[in-house]
Amino acid sequence: MAKIKKGDTVQVLAGKDKGSTGKVIAVNRETGRVTVEGVNRVTRHTKAGESSRGSRTGGLIVQEAPIHVSNVAIVDPSDKKPTRMKTRVETVERDGRQKATRVRVGVRSGKDL
């Protein structure tokens, strides 16, 4: 679940938008859902009202709805195909001390994501 982050490019694996790609807008770790740009668009009916300038608001709004994280896969930037992800631990020397950092790596190509 924690592998997909905001800003990642993902491809939808299941559902009505299967095969489409988009950028992750939001991640909800509690429900295990991600919101992807241009995917799972739904129409919301909002109550009519007035803004402070006097213009009418409300009506039909089309926006993205969350999709379960198991239905998306991260896209490998080298070949633009969906891939799984693993982590590699690298040691970096900072201020004379060794520090371990985790790097996300695509399984298909072995390159950093």
UniProtKB/TrEMBL annotation:
SUPFAM superfamilies: Translation proteins SH3-like domain (SSF50104). Residues 77-98 have a biased composition (Basic and acidic residues). It comes from the Bacteria. GO terms for cellular component: ribosome. Keywords: Ribonucleoprotein, Ribosomal protein, RNA-binding, rRNA-binding. Gene3D superfamilies: 2.30.30.30. Residues 3-30 form the KOW domain. Residues 77-113 are annotated as: Disordered. The keyword Ribonucleoprotein applies. InterPro entries: KOW, Rib_uL2_dom2, Ribosomal_uL24, Ribosomal_uL24_C, Ribosomal_uL24_CS, Ribosomal_uL24_KOW, Translation_prot_SH3-like_sf. One of two assembly initiator proteins, it binds directly to the 5'-end of the 23S rRNA, where it nucleates assembly of the 50S subunit. Belongs to the universal ribosomal protein uL24 family. HAMAP family: Ribosomal_uL24_B. Part of the 50S ribosomal subunit. This is Large ribosomal subunit protein uL24.
